[in-house]
Amino acid sequence: MAMGRAQVQGLSGFRPPEPSSIDSVDMGPVILRAPSPDPGDSSVAGRTSILVDRTVATERTDWVSLGAGDALLVIDMQRDFMPGGRLPVPGAAAVVGPLNRCLEGFARQGLPVFASRDWHPPGHCSFQAQGGPWPEHCVAGTRGAAFAEGVKLPPTVGIVSKGWDHSAETPSAFVETDLHARLRVLGVRRLFIAGLATDSFVLATAADGRDLGYEVFLLWDAVAGLGARPQDGARAFERMQQAGTVLIGSHALQA
């Protein structure tokens, strides 16, 4: 097992994950279920409500200044999840504009950007031909697994491949990858998350990020949900906020 690989149990497919059990190898202490921010903390000032799938969520509306210790994680912005792909996420095309605004802000500050990708082998267990729930998608090396057109990832982007084990579904970008190790080396404390899909990969990654001790910000206008059930997107926002993730819009980033 490579250093920094976290094994998380209970994550399966695009369904919201059950609470994770995390074991860290040679990475120092891992914080399980980190407490939510202190209600008296001044960082919760400047918030308003937004409507997400008919559910009210709380958005932080004051400026968030970017600086040392910040990183952007772009989750699974791949061709197969875009319109015309094998497993299109509704609203995925609308994510590109706000996401690029975030990418430009991080580029101006010279801050690290990571991009996760599904990188499945042929015959992956999640595929319908193998009894899984989804059509074949994001097979390693194929056009569908490439990053989506129009997403302005920097040349220095750190690529995180997941889902490469044919017998396991790994929606979180922290599971069976070295993402945590790479973030630690860079001294990252605050993780800003955008991409696809809100009710699966994004939810699982945000939860694990909080468990691992990061302050997590969800760029709510730069994500879109698969929507297997109508209420999944709203529940995902609620669960992330309950775990301490802060919702902000891409317009709130000050670089």
Q: What does this entry look like structurally?
A:
The protein is of the alpha/beta class and 255 residues long. The protein has a single domain (7-27, 47-254), classed as Rossmann fold, CATH 3.40.50.850. The protein contains four helices and twelve strands; from the N terminus they run E-E-E-E-E-E-H-E-E-H-E-H-E-H-E-E. The strands form three sheets. The protein has an eight-stranded mixed sheet. A two-stranded antiparallel ribbon has the order 1-2. Helix 3 packs parallel to helix 4 (232-242). The radius of gyration is 17 Å and the shape is globular.
Tags for this model:
20% helix; alpha/beta; 255 residues; 4 helices; two-stranded antiparallel ribbon; Rossmann fold; globular; 12 strands; single chain; disordered N terminus
Could you give the topology of this structure?
Elements lengths: L6 E2 L13 E2 L23 E6 L2 E6 L3 E2 L4 E6 L16 H18 L3 E6 L39 E5 L16 H7 L4 E7 L1 H14 L3 E10 L7 H11 L3 E3 L4 E2 L1
Parallel strand pairs: 4-11, 5-12, 6-7, 6-9, 7-8, 9-10, 10-11
Antiparallel strand pairs: 1-2, 3-4
Helix pairs in contact: 3-4
What's a quick, concise take on this entry?
The protein has four helices and twelve strands. With 255 residues, the protein is an alpha/beta fold.
Task: Give the helix proportion (percent range).
Answer: 10-25%
Average pLDDT reading: 81
Cα shape: globular
The run of helices and strands is EEEEEEHEEHEHEHEE
C-alpha termini separation: 37 Å
- Class by SSE composition: alpha/beta
Main beta sheet, described?
8 strands, mixed
Strand content: 15-25%
Unreliable stretches (pLDDT < 50, length at least 5) are 1-56
> Can you list the strand order of the major beta sheet?
3-4-11-10-9-6-7-8
Which fold name corresponds to the CATH topology? Rossmann fold
